Amino acid sequence: MKDYLYDGSFEGALTGIYQMFNDRVKAGEARLVWAATYQRDCFTKVTEVETDPSKAEKVTRWLLEEFGEIGFRRAAYAYLSDDDQYGTYLFCFLKKMNRLGEKGLDFFADQDINKVYKIYNRVCRESHLLLGLIRFMELENGILYATFEPTANILTLLTGHFKERLSNQIWVIHDTKRKIAAFYDGKEVYIRPLDELEDLKLSGSEKAYQDMWKTYFKRIAIERRNNPRQQMHMMPKKYWKFLVEKPQEKTK
Amino acid sequence: MEVLEKLAILADSAKYDVSCSSSGSSRPGEKNALGSASLPGICHSFSDDGRCISLLKILYTNKCIYDCGYCINRSSNDELKRVEFTPDELVDLMIQFYRRNYIEGLFLSSGVVRNPNYTMEQLIEVVKRLRTVERFNGYIHLKGIPGADAKLIEEAGKYVDRISINIELPTTKSLRLLAPEKSRIDMINPMMQIKEGIEEYRSDKGRFKNAQKFVPAGQTTQLIVGASPEADYNILRIAESFYKKMDLKRVYYSSYIPVGNVPSCQPYGEMSLMREHRIYQADWLLRFYGFRAGEILTEEDPFLEMMIDPKCQWALRNMQYFPIEINRADLMTLLRIPGIGNVTARRILASRKFGPLDFDALKRMGVVLKRAKYFITCRGKMMTAADQNPFLIRQLLADVSPQISLFEIYPNQFGVSS
């Protein structure tokens, strides 16, 4: 067994792929794993991958040329899942794809191709769900501010949608778990590190609209059809913290 | 009166409307304007009854001159406090909710106040203001008021993404009984008009760059199940003909919930969410699986079974077509297999180009083997040495999900009345 260690970045993973293909490693023979959490033992040969943007760039171009936009997106979105097996999955996926070419993307019966597809799909679903669950509050200065903590690192997947939808607003979406935020100034989106903010001053009318939304949320449910299971299934509890409306909270 | 109180009352009055879908329209964002619409639609929350909240579903007013037995807003309901928004209040609420990403757009309906034309004019005033003054570019679904002038429907169609006119009850006879002031023809005529308008828009869209939009997300309708005696078979036949003749996007079914004591409007037959659920499943078979209503049910056997889903019911009645070989069947045949949906069927077609599929592969691809295994072979072999006796399979396929109690499925047999 051989292990390749990378720094956890997307470029790092792609550099690792470059190196593994260069070393003619076979699928099943080696893993590509995070260096930070790696535990060494005395039987495994370890190769440390040094992230190299030019090698990563070569792999990116190869992905786009050989497997198209869709193929690249599968690899890139799956990365955002923060799955600790990602590197190895990606390697096995690309070994297969290298043999099959772009049409291999449709080979859902294959374990390696299916694995990456599933992770990619999980990321897509979370990002679609959160397009709806993000809640902005209006600050004193009119800026719309939202916090959330997605399971996958999907902040970048949301910005295009909100740039289009709220194009005449100024907004910030803050991933407080990863301490990064997307800023939109009315023209462009910037992604920057951002620590948790304290003492936010809300606009004068913010509370009134939040109250109206909470009331609406309660009133729109048909009591005789109460179905908390379904509610939790469609909208997992881990997201409730960031909603204005708190499901199952008793209000008048 | 405060807007908060109006909102509470008018949400209460609107909640029995089923649809909340925001799909079918693609409006790219515009520079310096608010809003966009996404083709697949977006859910923004899920209320305590588990339904999706996508649009601000609200009535303009719950004042109503009609006295429909099944409706909470009927004029004879004295317990209801009657209120009315002003266009300003509603427009402000919309914009402020939308900016905060609470909602995907507006679903505006109304009681009939004064007369149908006056009501329709009020609704148009709201959506027109949203589109032209506020330059709101999100999703709008408007209820058409039966009996309003054709001109008003045409005007509304320019501003909204979707229009729906409720047919309310499956047959004219039931309508006469429960909603005596409403007439079927007042529902059918505007539906025809909208259908023709949409066709015209579609053909213009291909030829002119700036064709006037008209109801781009199509029209839908809704009917109440269980307030009148029609069987599931009749309901499906009606839905089928609406899909064919009116080119509807959806027919929504709403299990009747008695609202107050109206003697003429008592729940009829199995009044359960399960029945509604089974009808929706059958509706899906009509729209996406190439089934005809006459295959799912017949006049002699007009009710869906509660214990197993309609596709399984069909399969068990037609065991002569099974088992089906996964590696050879075409799309329409694959779609007939219980446990295989549209996505999985397409994946099967794509994947088997690389070689024959086995049961493990099917499982990975999302086939529900629990149901499918009685109806398929992979390279000539069945998964289990299952008996092909439909009676036994029926037992094995019965839905015993813990959330459905026997009481709910057979309320009459257990003497439960709610």
The greatest interface here is:
A-B, 61 and 59 residues
**Helix amount of chain B:** 25-40%
Tell me the number of structural domains of chain B: 2
Q: First CA to last CA of chain B: what distance?
A: 35 Å
Mean pLDDT of chain B: 90
Q: Major sheet of chain A: size, sense and barrel closure? A: 5 strands, mixed
Distance between the termini of chain A: 62 Å
Number of helices of chain A: 7
Instruction: Tell me, briefly, the overall form of chain B.
Output: globular
| Number of domain modules of chain A | 3
Give the overall shape of chain A.
Answer: elongated
Q: Which percent bin holds the helix content of chain A?
A: 40-55%
What is the CATH H-level superfamily of the largest domain in chain B?
Answer: Aldolase class I
Radius of gyration of chain A: 22 Å
Strand fraction of chain A? 5-15%
Low-confidence stretches of chain B: 413-418
What pattern of helices and strands is seen along the backbone of chain B? HEEEHEHEHEHHEHEHHHEHHHHEHH
Structure description:
The complex is a heterodimer of chains A (252) and B (418). Chain A is of the alpha/beta class and 252 residues long. Chain A has three domains: 2-126, no CATH class; 134-203, no CATH class; 205-252, no CATH class. Chain A is built from seven helices and eight strands. Chain A has helices at 10-22, 53-80, 86-100, 111-133, 155-165, 206-219, 228-234, and strands at 2-6, 30-34, 45-48, 137-138, 144-148, 171-175, 180-184, 189-193. In chain A, the strands form two sheets. In chain A, strands 4-5-6-7-8 form a five-stranded mixed β-sheet, covered by helices on one side. Chain A has a three-stranded parallel β-sheet with strand order 2-1-3. The longest helix of chain A is centred in the N-terminal third of the chain and has 28 residues, at 53-80. By secondary structure, chain B is an alpha/beta fold. Chain B folds into two domains: 3-296, Aldolase class I (TIM Barrel); 310-398, no CATH class. Chain B has 16 helices and ten strands. In chain B, strands 3-4-5-6-7-8 form a six-stranded parallel β-sheet. In chain B, strands 1-2 form a two-stranded antiparallel ribbon. In chain B, a hairpin with a 5-residue loop joins β1 (45-46) and β2 (52-53). In chain B, α2 packs across α3. Chain B is globular. Chains A and B meet through α4, β4, α5, α6 and α7 of A and α1, β1, β2, α2 and α12 of B.
